[in-house]
UniProtKB/TrEMBL annotation:
<dbReference type="InterPro" id="IPR007472">
    <property type="entry name" value="N-end_Aminoacyl_Trfase_C"/>
</dbReference>
<dbReference type="InterPro" id="IPR030700">
    <property type="entry name" value="N-end_Aminoacyl_Trfase"/>
</dbReference>
<dbReference type="GO" id="GO:0005737">
    <property type="term" value="C:cytoplasm"/>
</dbReference>
<protein>
    <recommendedName>
        <fullName>N-end rule aminoacyl transferase C-terminal domain-containing protein</fullName>
    </recommendedName>
</protein>
<dbReference type="Pfam" id="PF04377">
    <property type="entry name" value="ATE_C"/>
</dbReference>
<dbReference type="GO" id="GO:0004057">
    <property type="term" value="F:arginyl-tRNA--protein transferase activity"/>
</dbReference>
<feature type="domain" description="N-end rule aminoacyl transferase C-terminal">
    <location>
        <begin position="5"/>
        <end position="106"/>
    </location>
</feature>
Length: 137
């Protein structure tokens, strides 16, 4: 988690101009780690011989040469969609256009998860946004 937080802090300060006080570990944990989603395999059926991840929040790590963590994508895997919550990367690697690469990977992964779902397809959508549930008042 320390490596992810370091990349997050560097990204937020370089790209968004946040101060060191705004990127403390506690803020990182609250924003991107402490998910209200409960990880679950309930209702998640798989095609024979294939493994599908359970529903929940995940951090997808992007490593350079297996040695340097350069980007992290936070995603929510839900019954009807893959929601891309946030992506942050080490500012020194901005030239790699990691946001574009991650968006293409997420789109591909949504197709993979759809293929792992039994008919009828239960995974037709990929969202590049943060899903916010609003209750009735």
């Amino acid at each position: 988690m320390a490596a992810e937080h370091k990349v997050y802090a560097d990204y937020q300060m370089a790209v968004h101009g946040d101060s060191a006080d705004e990127v403390k570990l506690s803020q990182f944990l609250r924003f991107l780690v402490q998910s209200p989603l409960v990880s679950s395999d309930s209702g998640r059926k798989q095609k024979k011989g294939e493994e599908a991840p359970g529903f929940g929040s995940y951090h997808q790590q992007y490593w350079l040469d297996g040695e340097k963590l350069i980007a992290i994508g936070v995603v929510d895997l839900l019954p009807g969609c893959l929601s891309s919550v946030y992506l942050f990367y080490h500012p020194d690697y901005a030239f790699l256009r990691l946001g574009t690469y991650a968006a293409l990977r997420f789109a591909h992964e949504s197709r993979v998860y759809l293929a792992l779902s039994p008919p009828p397809p239960r995974f037709p959508f990929y969202f590049r946004l943060f899903l916010v549930a609003v209750g009735s008042a």
